[in-house]
Amino acid sequence: MTMISVNDFKNGLTIQYNNDIWRIVEFQHVKPGKGGAFVRSKLKSLKTGAVQDYTFRSTAKVEDADVQTKTMQYLYNDGTSFVFMDMATYEQLEVPETQAEAKFLKENMVVNIIMHDGKTLGIEVPNTVDLVVKETAPATSTGSGKPATMETGLVVTVPMFINVGDVLTINTAGNGSYVSRANK
Question: Cβ atoms within 10 A of the Cβ of 93, count?
């Protein structure tokens, strides 16, 4: 068990705190005019995906989390879980639907599987993915956008000029949002 000072926080660092595994999303060292310095941080739970704000005294120490990342290829969904293959060993791993980023996964996509103590914590998909529009309403002269259903079932608000069959670049942060038409 390695302890690290909160003064050594870096974005992307993984820690154990309050019986959970957290990835540091952002942090700020604060030195007020009165009182002791502290570190304000935004942490994302690797178990639940929830993001929470925490404030630590500058003298605090937290436990470093030993997290492994495996690069794997998404193969298919068997109805209850998503199946991934380690491209080096060809071993397969089943991840329950509740832990998978199902709305962004396409067959043969390469993702990072985050593991701790042999247990799967979650899946990191690329920052953007290209998805095909499967269904959308015809363009109208009113409104700034319309809903479009992508090939994975994800519903995104898109500009009026988008049509069925268009390939769109989608931002995977949060719930996913339209970025642009894909260059294909």
Answer: 16
